[in-house]
Amino acid sequence: MRRLEGEFDYIVVGAGTAGCIVANRLSANPKHRVLILEAGGDDNWIWFHIPVGYLFAIGNPRSDWMFRTDPEPGLNGRSLAYPRGKVIGGCSAINAMISMRGQGADYDHWRQLGLTGWGRDDVWPLFKKLEDHFLGESEHHGAGGGWRIEAPRLSWAILDAVGEAAEEMGIKKIPDFNTGDNEGVSYFHVNQKRGRRWSSARGFLKPALGRPNLRLEKHVLVDRLVIEDGRAVGVRFARDGETFEARAKGEVILCAGAIGSVQVLQRSGIGPAHWLSPLGIEVLRDKPGVGRNLQDHLQQRAIYKVSGVRTLNETYWSLPRRGLMGLDYVFRRRGPLTMAPSQLGIFTRSDATRERANIQFHVQPLSLDKFGDPLHRFPAITVSACNLQPTSRGEIRIRSADPNEKPSIAPHYLSTDDDRQVAADAIRTTRRLMRQKALARFSPSELLPGPSVGDDDAALAKAAGDIGTTIFHPVGTAKMGTATDPLAVVDERLRFFGIGQLRVVDASIMPTITSGNTNTPTAMIAEKGATMILEDAR
Questions:
Q1: Where are the alpha helices (DSSP H) in 113-154?
Q2: What is the phi/psi pair of residue 513, to 5°?
Q3: Cα–Cα nearest to 475, from 362, 387, 396, 371
Q4: Between residues 369 and 480, the one the model is more confident about
Q5: What is the DSSP secondary-structure string of 343-389?
Q6: Which of 184, 253, 318, 483 would disulfide-bridge 174, Cβ 3.0–4.6 Å?
Q7: What confidence score (pLDDT) does residue 434 get?
Q8: Do residues 241 and 513 touch, judged by C-beta distance below 8 A?
Q9: How far apart are CA 343 and CA 283, in angstroms?
Q10: Percent residues over pLDDT 90 in the chain
Q11: Which residues are catalytic?
């Protein structure tokens, strides 16, 4: 084993959404020597930058860890692909680019759990600090930050009509989902700049790489932490068949995400003892919460054929239209190549008893059998509804001490009565939406789940299991909590319970999932985490 040359104050594991921000903030002080380690490589592939490139990046080992879930009973035995970014920028280099904070009530709930400093009023200034928003400086948005946010650069008549249908149902039209209450219908704002994807690497890591006190090492697989006298003093990692050790005088900060950070901890002997001992791993800390509390957003992906209106399906199968689409992007940075996977959003309640919006619609002017397949040859749209506040809890656990072996991922989708009820009600809400007068002229015809699926709870819950799929928001596997919480892994300052000089700063610390896409909340966690690290170092 070789010692990595150089001395470091901080080691950041993972150059994804969180790691790029943490490394930027810590290295802003030239006295801090920062090492950031990334398993992937540079984002020097065209499909990392053209927004529609997610179609090529997801499911490609060049950019994706290629994880899969275990067969899920709630999904009628199906296993799902579980993409995670493997490149600088992490998931922000391959994700949906949707800028979504969630609801203010999400963070007030964290505060009510005893997590001081995590309420809505505490975190909203951090979101603003990160942003360079096209709307400029305002009560809700910031300007001049590293996180560029813009409006979408194309429109579709069919999506406008779906928005009108939502209004006919009593869902108000709103201009912005990110003011604290996202209930309503609007177009998503996106992490793009002039029609190009804007990742955490572009916004935060690359501008800092010229600093002599920041060092990035790519294509390295972190195996485990180095723990001495109850403190994290370094990490061990592999590259090109060699094993290296790097040491930190200050802190080791895990930013490898809800799957990656858990794997490193468990391989280090930190996790549920009865999981680790049978794998021959010496248990350093019996921490029952490491790998538990997995939460994700499951969507019911309904598809409707339409007529008399354009969708992306026809463009996909027409060479002349595809050529025009390419020219539109080259010369104007507009058109379908700038599309996020979802354009129109609807936040509403699955039934009248819900205190706040608990389902989110992603509406797309396209359809396909499954992600990675070609688009259908007929005009159609996808209207996906996901449960924003699931009660199901899953787990992630390593299968062996080998860092190259993929972990067991068991989200336990639809494992609670409440989640099955919300799934059934979400399909009902989708059907009601598509029956509105605003859409009548397009003759929407249900393809999935299909008209043969009845309206009773049992039939709809089974259908949800057949058509349900992840929208790639795993969180919570190293949850933040109080000292009395048996599953808490880190405290409200993201310090690891029971091990000094170790923090986790990524989506894994969420005690409960936020009500919307999780990339922007992860960026906020990184901003807050870096601030606390610097405060505690004084």
A1: 120-130
A2: -70, 145
A3: 396
A4: 480
A5: -EEEEE-SSTT-SS--EEEEEES--BSSTTSPBPSS-EEEEEEEESS
A6: 184
A7: 98
A8: no
A9: 47
A10: 95
A11: 473
